[in-house]
Amino acid sequence: MKIIDADNPATHPLQSWEWGEFRKTQGVKVVRFSAYQISFHRLPFLNFTVGYLPKSPFPDKKDLEKLKEIGKEQKAIFIKLEPNVEKKLSPNTYYLSPGLKIGKPLFTKYTSVIDLTPSEEEIFNSFKSKTRYNIRLAEKHGVKVQEDNSEKAFEKYLDLLFETAGRQGFYAHNKKYHRDQWKIMQPAGISHLFTATYRGKILSAFLLFTFNSVLYYPYGASTREHKELMAPTLLMWEAVKFGKSRGCTKFDLWGDTEPNPPPNHPYYGFHRFKEGFSPKLVEFVGTYDLIINPTLYKIYQIADKIRWKILRLKTKL
Q1: Given this structure, which CATH class describes domain 110-282?
Q2: Quick check: 61 and 97 in contact, CB under 8 A?
Q3: 79 within 8 A of 37, measured Cβ to Cβ
Q4: What Pfam families has UniProt attached to this entry (predicted)?
Q5: What phi and psi, each to the nearest 5 degrees, are found at residue 104?
């Protein structure tokens, strides 16, 4: 596993050297300086780009000026910043930095985190009673969980992922994106594929990341078959045990809703599933656009709204 700067180690898998190398396979320009890894995405039919700096340390004013310089070199309209910093730890002056505007989030502002430092018994007992019951139910009915990084298991996971995306109506990258990611992140020891099987059939699969003593849950998929066996719930519990065995101190569930979402919230089901494991809800500083070309930024915002309307429509077809 490589880091960007020996004095400024990456704080998140999306800032890892391997993630940057993966993004290059998608035709994305990657620029690294200090503790920052920025990807620049060329806009179709235009000689301009949009920069993205996800889950980085907190850029100070000097770093923001350097980011602007890099953005100009890459003909960026703006750079989207989503620091991996909790809101309660951030200085208020950050929100007043010139050229920054609150932007449309790509990551959720919140995530849920399970503390992995207590014993397995203590962690299990902290879960909600219904979650503990479902774990035992899955075990009783013979659901088996294992780490399976084989090509066959990965292809089945992809099938389940796209089945899940279609069923739940959310946007998913194409299979090439996921295959290219796997080819780089898995040999580096960052990506791990776990499957829950019943009578030889995979019912659910999680792709997990381990990075700097933190376990992450970026992708999960499942079939509608045998929903009564609660395979994803057992899979999450086995992921917790895996994280502890790898020396991880936290399990970041890769995003969550705001506190107490209404039942009609589009991610209410995800929230309820995660809530059963009694995680701590963490709020980040949020999303900011570092504007480099103000005129084109306004035009981009209008075009982006139209683009997302089209993508949402496609998920419903």
Answers
A1: alpha beta
A2: yes
A3: no
A4: FemAB (PF02388)
A5: -75, 125
Residue given tokens 């700067």 in the structure block: 5
Say how many Å lie between the first and final Cα of the chain, rounded. Answer: 41
Amino acid identity for residue 131 in this structure: T
Nearest residue to 205 via CA among 182, 184, 177, 171: 182
Domain ranges in the chain are 13-107+284-316, 110-282
Structure tokens at 38: 């920025």
CB 14 within 8 A of CB 54: yes
| DSSP 3-state percent helix, strand, coil across the chain (nearest 5) | 40, 25, 35
CA torsion angle 113 116 120 125 (round to 10): -40
- 39 by Cβ neighbours in 10 Å (0-12 / 13-18 / 19+) ranks as buried
In 3D space, the residue among 117, 86, 70 whose CA is nearest the CA of residue 11 turns out to be 86
Q: At what angle do helices 268-275 and 231-245 cross, to 10 degrees?
A: 60
Residues 98-109: tens digit of each pLDDT = 789 999 999 999
User: Are domains 13-107+284-316 and 110-282 of this chain identical in fold?
Assistant: yes
For domain 13-107+284-316, the CATH superfamily is Gcn5-related N-acetyltransferase (GNAT) (3.40.630.30)
Taking the whole predicted model, whether its pTM rises above 0.85 is answered as yes
Place of tokens 């050297």: 17
For the chain, which residues score pLDDT lower than 50?
1-7
